[in-house]
Amino acid sequence: MNTNNNTILITGGATGIGLALAEVLLRNGNQVIICGRRQDKLIQVKEKYPQIHTRVCDVSNASDQQTLFEWILGEFPNLNVLINNAGVQNQIDYTKSMPKVLPNGDEIAINFMAPVQLCALFIPHLMKQKEAAIINVSSGLGFVPLAMMPVYCATKAALHSFTWS
Question: Among this protein's residues, is 49 annotated catalytic?
């Protein structure tokens, strides 16, 4: 994959790994689009990097996924790279109390189901591009899990398996 002259969508691109990827890819001469749930974070990125395109999107929401896809096709028909980066990580101690299975956000929906659905939406479009790629951001915790983050670790293991498949 060339690392320049691409049109790239990064989910969860307003903070953390996603923002770091956006900064590097922007410096390498790519057109970068980021999405995230928090408009305030997207505004901060846009103020710092006016050339980055932003979109509020909760990737765990099927309607938001479809709206994002349609917006991308309309505004950025040359999109050729999808980076599924959005993720949440919650600590859960099943030995201490009766916790909610998915506290503070749906880790399964954001960390695993969203990348699967976004791949399903974007693959037909990406297959029409001269060069295209999908990058699914996983974690070492998918290989060496920790008891304090069981759902997160399981989603990253599932994402790794899906990506290889």
Answer: no
